[in-house]
Amino acid sequence: MSDRHVLVLAGGLTHEREVSLRSGSRLAESLRRQGVDVTLRDADASLLPWLVQHRPDAAVIALHGGRGENGAVHGVLEMAGVPFVGTAAHECRLAWDKPTAKTMMHRAGFLTPNWMTLAHNTFRDLGAGALIDSLAHHLGMPLMLKPYQGGSALGATKVTDAAEVPGALVQAFAYGDVVLVEQFVTGTEVSVTVIDTDSGPRALPAVEIVPDSGVFDYESRYTAGLTTYFTPARLSDESAAAAADLAIGAHRELGLRDVSRTDAIVDADGRVHFLEVNVSPGLTETSMLPMAVEAAGEDLGHLYSALIDRALAR
């Protein structure tokens, strides 16, 4: 790999910029230890001219949120003819839109918490009070409210009473004009990374997530010490296998490529419920993908070097 020039994209103009910069820096250093010639840079107005001038052999997208996960930057790399690690642009949209991903997984026979999507103007047109009461009656309590697109649990809130819904809606609508309202399933929260190999997608050991607050929100994700992780997750062999099957199923059903991370809940009966999937998993010191890689006895730089080889071979 020493003769390869690889671009790592990090930063971007999203709410997750700082997380992305941390992910990109860690990945760049991991690849450099493998002897890879790495350029770490932002995705900004100078990107396309830079691609034309420098023609990197391949790229890795370490952008989170917005353009880094909705396929926009992926499409730019496709237009520029730069091979990259990650899902093709069109399929990124399926994973980025949480209700679409849930619908596809439900149709494929996987469990996912019951949900509704509601636009901001629906509350204005139909009356917020009556709609909230109907929502609580239809889905039951507790509920999880989150933006229908986005990552890092930004704008996500657990509510246990209808009186808490208005405040949770304000939080969610701060990140978009549509909110996903989902039944809250009590159980063990896990994250499963899937890596493409020559023999097909492979699930790495599941990471169990135990936030001190009881909810894996933005602060719990990126503040060291606020969440305890267990890798591999403390699951029965049957539940661990089911979680792996779910993550591989999401990777295949949504047409994902190279690497993905599926978030799920394992309930008291051992059933695994799909929550969402990420096409650009975090790589920070508190991110689950590096934990899974370490638990599998592998090296982050070596793993991504192999994914770069796959991208170059396409």
UniProtKB/TrEMBL annotation:
Keywords: ATP-binding, Cell shape, Cell wall biogenesis/degradation, Cytoplasm, Ligase, Magnesium, Manganese, Metal-binding, Nucleotide-binding, Peptidoglycan synthesis. PANTHER family: D-ALANINE--D-ALANINE LIGASE (PTHR23132), D-ALANINE--D-ALANINE LIGASE B (PTHR23132:SF23). The keyword Metal-binding applies. It holds the Pfam family Dala_Dala_lig_C. Mg(2+) 1 binds at D263, E276. Gene3D superfamilies: 3.40.50.20, ATP-grasp fold, A domain, ATP-grasp fold, B domain. The gene is ddl. Residues 102-309 form the ATP-grasp domain. It comes from the Bacteria. It is an enzyme of class 6 (ligase). Mg(2+) 2 binds at E276, N278. InterPro entries: ATP-grasp, ATP_grasp_subdomain_1, D-Ala_lig_Van_CS, D_ala_D_ala, Dala_Dala_lig_C, PreATP-grasp_dom_sf. This is D-alanine--D-alanine ligase. NCBIfam families: PRK01372.1 (NF002378). It comes from Nakamurella alba. Binds 2 magnesium or manganese ions per subunit. Belongs to the D-alanine--D-alanine ligase family. The lineage of its organism: Bacteria, Bacillati, Actinomycetota, Actinomycetes, Nakamurellales. The keyword Ligase applies. Its EC number is 6.3.2.4. Pathway: Cell wall biogenesis; peptidoglycan biosynthesis. One of its GO terms (biological process) is regulation of cell shape.
